[in-house]
Amino acid sequence: MKLMAVLVEDVEIDQSSDADDDILMLKHLQSLGYEYKLISWHSPPASLDHFDLCLVRIAYGYHTSPDAFLQLIKRFNEAGVTVLNPPKMINWNYHKKYLLELRNQGFLLPSTYLIEQTASAPKLSSIMAETDIYSAVIKPAISASATSTFRITLPVSSDMQKNFEEILEKHDVLVQEFMTEIAQGEISLIYLSGQYKYAVKKIPKTDGGWLVQSEHGGRTIEYQAEQNEIKVGDKIMYWLEQKFGKFPLYARIDGIKTENGFSLMEVELIEPGLFFSKNAAKIALFGHALTKYNEA
């Protein structure tokens, strides 16, 4: 039986629940012969080398202290523990500048610009005028669940400029063209070991909403991905394999339909929601992928 460290934000979670996808996933892994121990990435133990594996998939909140989180990943790796997803992928994925690399590789994305952390912020109105963007989404380059994310439209109000300056004092920031197609929903393609498995569509609330996360009123429905969408996901998986020498164990590719094709919004390799929806078959797919990944 292999001992697996499961990184979490809070170890005091109810492990008896059958209503939580993460707990159901862990119970299934236990049935496959994986003994697991919840480890807070905030306060890990001094010794890590007794673990065989480290699963990062539910390490929620890592973006609040990325340096400490990445240092822990490094410690696991140096202790000879197999980290999933692999550390090189985590180090690449935690900062959203990876989107610029994907754009440079020819993948379709909204116009996206990185503004590095500074105490002397540029004017948003100037950035938007220079880039020919009328409406934009502002987000920290290290974030999750749309934290500190807001939308602006020309002319930029003084309050929005102030919000931007406050974020930029602490973080790098992305300025990304707002895509009106988000009203039709964001498509999430779920990949395990580089293979497409299933998809969902996340839909914002109807009264002018544009954020698709459940925390912001969004809802999720089952979705049958189209071949052109899967083709984009497959190309990203192939590119990741070429870059890192292997596929990620798990990945979620988010995008939207546009007149120019499937436009990439995010590639999530750290702690993506995989939308098991308490479906035993989907959870079993994850368990099977984990077992095969370790045997490879």
Automatic annotation (TrEMBL):
Domain Prokaryotic glutathione synthetase ATP-binding per the UniProt entry, residue ranges: 123-243
GO MF: ATP binding; glutathione synthase activity
Record-linked InterPro entries: DcsG_Biosynth_Enzyme, GSHS_ATP-bd
Name this polypeptide is given: Prokaryotic glutathione synthetase ATP-binding domain-containing protein
Organism: Didymodactylos carnosus
